[in-house]
Specification:
single chain, alpha+beta, five-stranded mixed beta sheet
């Protein structure tokens, strides 16, 4: 599975969009450690999602922080790392 932070593939290969996909790591306390590990978990889940759609690559990797503040729920503030991207299929060489 190729992954690109840009909206194109590094090798310039032709592709078409399957659609936008999103995945996230588990919720944690807002001050809990685990930032880099959560990013890897979110990307791993995103790859799994892309594979379910038959994608060959993922482009436009963007990380987000989802959070729930104390006013929204009863208990401590929560946070998770999420990632959004475009799943694509390679075009066939003609």
């Amino acid at each position: 599975m190729q992954i690109s932070h840009a909206h194109k593939l590094a090798d310039g290969r032709g592709h078409y969009s399957i659609g936008r996909i999103r995945a996230a790591a588990e919720w944690r306390g807002a001050n809990a450690p685990g930032g880099q590990a959560d990013r890897f978990t979110a990307v791993r889940e995103l790859i799994r999602e892309a594979q379910e759609y038959g994608a060959d690559a993922i482009i436009g990797l963007k990380f987000h922080i989802d959070d729930i503040k104390r006013g929204d729920i009863d208990g401590p503030a929560l946070r998770r790392v999420a990632v959004t991207e475009i799943a694509v299929k390679f075009t066939e060489a003609g």
